[in-house]
Design goal:
Structural class: alpha/beta
Mean pLDDT: 93
Number of strands: 10
Number of helices: 11
Shape: globular
CATH topology of the domain at 61-279: Aspartate Aminotransferase, domain 2
Oligomer: single chain
Helix content: 25-40%
Low-confidence stretches: 1-9
CATH superfamily of the domain at 61-279: Type I PLP-dependent aspartate aminotransferase-like (Major domain)
Largest sheet: 7 strands, mixed
CATH architecture of the domain at 61-279: 3-Layer(aba) Sandwich
Length: 376
Amino acid sequence: MTSSTPADVAMSGLSLEDARAQFARVPGYLSACTGGLPSRRTADALRAFVDAWASGGVDARAIGADVARCKELYGRIAGVAADRVAFGSQVSQLVSIVATSVPDGAEVLCAEGDFSSLTHPFEQLAARGVRVRYAPVSELAAAVSPATALVAFSLVQSATGEVAEADAIAEAAEAAGARTLVDLTQSLGWLPTTASRFDYTVCHAYKWLCAPRGTAFLTVRDGLDDSMTPLAAGWCSADDVWASCYAGHTPLAADAGRFDLSPSWPVIAATAAALELFAAVDRDAVHAHDVRLANLARAALGLAPADSAIVAWSDPEGADLAAMTVAGITASGRAGNARVAFHIWNTEEDVALLADALDRGERARVHGAEPSTLNA
């Protein structure tokens, strides 16, 4: 089995419309913030792995080449060199490595209500005297103190879609001598971002980058490799993985590859296909498209415009989420909110479906009927 994303088919200079054409139309799928849809090439690559596996044709060295390709493509998307990228399977795994950089007795400052894969690893450091303090993401910059060793926050909040004031937070952290860890899982793919602005970043690629679940990335600012312990080091943590399979010769990679974890083989070629699309597409055009549709949805909901592709509103009883589900819309509920998201495959028709579903739901609540029984 050879790599399914060779250089001779790599995309370049992809327009928004050409990128959109790579996706099947799935009306009412408003859940990129929960899981992205695969492009046709991504789905084909995933099927090709299964076919090769079933026929005994899996080639571990070709998969290794695809891992290297994924790191190069991810670095291009995130704005860092490939040697600053480490490869894993889950965000919490990679955050746990960053947690080894926190000194005993230090403070980690996190955003209130942030996703637990980012915060939970730091809460496990209490035995070393590490304290985790929380502040609203909008007040995070002001909350940095001389005691803060690390500021950890999601660039875009999962539950609300709020975009953090990253520059102000990074400046406050630098002034206090603190480092920054930023989770890009809910931003990279729709919000143009440069990971090199921060000391460490993490990202799972199955949401806005539309890869299969099981591939996550860590970036490490140059010069900080020795700040962390590669506590999950294995045979993939060396420059030459095939020469470091057995005890007695297990050198660490000279760069961020020392933090690489063994990849989940079935998803690697498909991840490379997904990253090729987002490395090639006009990112500003994707951002403008996603936010425009989100703001059309906000207008239909009576909400103020915002610069986020995620739209969340209070829905403590889940009534709006139920109405959307009845209407065939794929959405989600988080922290007492209903939540939808708009990405590359969505259209104004999806906004109209959303508005109609919520209107039907409201009328059903007034009349005590099921939303599906009311005519438009």
